[in-house]
Amino acid sequence: MTAHYDALETREQAAREAELFSRLPAVLRSAMTAPAYAERLKGVDPDAVTTRAALARLPVLRKSELPALHKASAPFGGFVAAAPGSFARLFTSPGPIFEPEGRQADPWRGARALFAAGFREGDIVLNTFSYHLTPGGFIFDSSARALGCAVIPAGPGNAEQQFELIEAYRPVGYSGTPDFLKILLDAAATAGRDVSSIKRALVSGAAFPPSLQAEIKARSIDAYQAFGTADLGLIAFETEAREGMVVNEDLIMEIVKPGTGDPVAPGDVGEIVVTSLDPHHPWIRLALGDLTAALPGTSPCGRTNMRIKGWMGRADQTTKVKGMFVRPEQVAEIAKRHPALGRLRLVVTRQGETDAMTLKAETAAASEALREEIAGTLRAVTKLGGAIELVGPGALPNDGKVIADER
User: What does the pLDDT read at residue 311?
Assistant: First the structure.
């Protein structure tokens, strides 16, 4: 596979950035007609937000906040100016979080992810994501149909009935979780059913470790991974290069220090923040709570957009110490008060029957005075005492973890 979905995928990155940020002011103006965005972005001049640096000065909206916000102002927390009836479908996800689907073609931006995985017009796709209330099934269904594929809306489970459909329709593609694909293949082998028509897959929603990748490949299925959410649809996807995931077009992705909205240094692990450019339902700096890191350079497949390593864990590392919550935002505040420090990691352990904290901090100028200053800041910010361990620059791992609960 060497073709691309369209010319947008191979344009110069500078041209992409210019085009995205030329559209952003209008999207911001549209967002600010909704009461919640109007309040959050009060005083912001949309016409001045035309660079990544300017965007980074806007507040982040944490996905973890959405359940409470949606409950307080149903259904969309005041972040959508349009009436619910202006959308095509209305979903809910655990929380609950309420998600609308737009009426435009390919509203979840998934067609190019399927194309990168080898799906083509005229293919028949077995879609095993759930169609019940949550958007997963419809995300992949609408994406496949936008590509020109026919879809079997199978959903998860009911393997025996799915075998009948597979043997009758002979789908070449599968979309669903990787673990259900294995369940389906194992059950077919046990029952002597023919599912050999399935040759490619786009999987998401669950871990796809190398061992399972190898097993699926050994069964003559070429499987690719995609990263998405119920809020935004497909955010990034694997290509034939198999070197990380390429960020989808029409999205602005930032990687920030957990607990902040500040961009990380190139290559560092941080939290994914996404801004979408749909004026009907915009997301402005939605912090997903997922960790990743950007990869340098351009993908060998020829796609020029930003690449990420994929999902690398959760950014929300909040824990409870001696009955009090300690949050990544507090560790970020300590870093802000001591800008000469490098990475920080708060390690929570047990000493006997008592919780204990140790803040590890990178510095090139360790001293007892600095240690005491940081200890005072730790107590002031968290209202808890803890030990301070000063380590050399680069001593702490680049994994995005700022709180490590080792109890």
Answer: 87
Residue 353's beta-bridge partner residues?
A: none
DSSP of 267-280: T--EEEEEEE--TT
Domain ranges of the chain: 13-313, 319-405
Distance of alpha carbon 48 from alpha carbon 25, whole angstroms: 8
pLDDT beneath 70, residues of the chain = 1-2, 353
Sheet of 61-62: strands edge to edge?
Answer: 61-62, 286-292, 270-276, 251-256
CATH number of 319-405: 3.30.300.30
Strand partners, 222: 200
What topology is assigned to 13-313 in CATH?
Rossmann fold (3.40.50)
Q: Supply φ then ψ for residue 301, to 5 degrees.
A: -75, -10
| Burial class for 135, CB neighbours closer than 10 Å (0-12, 13-18, 19+) | buried
Summarize pLDDT for 359-388 with one digit per residue, the tens. Answer: 999 999 999 999 999 999 999 999 899 999
Question: 318, 344, 254, 248: which is closest to 291 by C-alpha?
Answer: 254
pLDDT at 157: 85
CA separation for the pair 324, 321 (Å, rounded): 5
What DSSP designation does 171 have? -
